[in-house]
Amino acid sequence: MPPRRATLQQKCDYQREYYTRNSEARREYQVRYNRVKRATRRKLSKGDLEALKEKIRHEVNGTIRIFENHICRKSGVLDSEYTADMVDDELHLIEDLQDSRVSESSSYFREHPDADEDGWIPTYTNQMEKRLLKEAEWGRRTAHLHKEGKESREHVHAMRRRVAIIHQEIYLLRQGLEVPTLAVDANASVACGYGVNKTEFRRRYGF
Predict the structure, then answer these.
(1) What does the pLDDT look like over 3-38, one tens digit per residue?
(2) Cα 161 to chain center, whole Å?
(3) With left for phi above 0 and alpha for psi between -120 and 50, is residue 187 left, alpha or beta?
(4) Per DSSP, what are the bridge partners of residue 78?
(5) pTM score over 0.85
(6) Which of 46, 63, 98, 127 is most buried (most C-beta within 10 Å)?
(7) How many domains does the chain have?
(8) How far is the C-alpha of 171 from the C-alpha of 183, rounded, in Å?
């Protein structure tokens, strides 16, 4: 983990290490090829099957896929309200998410040793949705206290960023195992200090 008072660059480097852990193993061509072959045997709708095969073809060819992360500002502007305390808090949050990923994927592969490498994602993201709901509710309460003069605007924004990071953890992983890495490299990750799309955020979470 980076020093407690980490710089933004150190934080982004940590993010890349987090999101690309074991990435070389994931890029083995034979694994990708086998997944393409297995895809045709899955019980999926025609549209879902074609989307899956397209995703895997991009992985096999090593090409960058288009992804969506509406919770992050598209301009890639650093968050002007970002503070050192938020950096520290988010580093701990990211480390916690990493531990949860490792725990869930390890447990999944012990039970399903021949499963696809992203087979653990549905269970993990469903669990994260429960956490997301709790964090969002806490954020709304904090925002209400702020209106009453009992909480700072900074604390509300810190909660907004926490919720956004957990949201994108779920949303990006559901687009593909490699997508969080693409978001970091494209400067499109809230977790690297970039701004939250407040319009989209309020629409979803109400504060």
Answers:
(1) 555 565 665 666 666 555 544 444 444 454 455 555
(2) 13
(3) left
(4) 194
(5) no
(6) 98
(7) 1
(8) 11
